[in-house]
Automatic annotation (TrEMBL):
Pfam families: DUF3159. The keyword Transmembrane applies. This is DUF3159 domain-containing protein. The chain crosses the membrane at residues 28-61, 73-92, 98-119, 143-165, 177-201. InterPro entries: UCP010219.
């Protein structure tokens, strides 16, 4: 019974580290709020006003997160992203430009994660081993390697789907649907990929840690 509890605690700790390294669930929610503000502002006013509304909302959220005790560097990450996205929108003169950084980031991430599969070093397995101080030869175990192949493939599909769908909506100049896709393909899809990763982590712990 004690061993089972300890393994569950290790799984929870590893999952939390994974979430934190990838922005965290709350961070994704905070990121979605300025997007909604931008789309509403763009529908009711001109593009410059929409950018201003998104930046103001991001500033308020940053102050709220700092007040809650989050480190300034972490809390201000969303604000930097909103300012950068707003800058691209202003530069392109298009509301869709607000989403370009996220679209191209998804493509880069999809390629990077897929390459880790091609070279037989799936990213989730590398992360699991880092969390265990790189002391296990996890790639030598076919079942563990296969589990991390599947977990890493889940993230490849996630990032690739984000790029394909959002790039298509950008080309169609469907800003409202683009915002919806960005939010819908954010936390919900990320949670599914994390569930597969938790399963891979548990498989790895069962083979090497327990």
């Amino acid at each position: 019974m004690t061993t089972s509890v300890q393994e569950d605690a290790k799984d929870i700790d590893a999952t939390q580290v994974l979430l934190n390294n990838m922005g965290g669930t709350s961070g994704m929610i905070y990121t979605a709020i300025p997007v909604v503000a931008f789309v509403i502002g763009n529908a009711l006013a001109a593009l410059p006003a929409a950018i201003g509304v998104a930046v103001v909302v991001a500033l308020v959220l940053t102050a709220f997160r700092v007040k809650r005790g989050e480190p300034i560097a972490q809390a201000s990450g969303g604000l930097v992203g909103v300012i950068a996205a707003g800058g691209v929108a202003a530069w392109t003169g298009s509301a869709g430009g607000y989403f370009l950084i996220g679209i191209w980031t998804s493509l880069v991430c999809a390629l990077a994660v897929f390459v880790s599969l091609l070279v037989r070093r799936p990213l989730t397995g590398l992360l699991w081993n880092v969390l265990h101080r790189n002391k296990y030869d996890w790639r030598a175990d076919p079942s563990v390697l296969r589990a991390h192949d599947l977990a890493t493939l889940a993230f490849t599909v996630l990032f690739a789907a984000r790029y394909i769908v959002q790039d298509w909506l950008y080309d169609a100049d469907a800003t409202g649907w683009l915002a919806f896709a960005k939010i819908a393909m954010g936390t919900p899809m990320f949670a599914l990929a994390v569930l597969v990763t938790v399963w891979a982590f548990r498989r790895s712990n069962k083979q090497f840690v327990s």
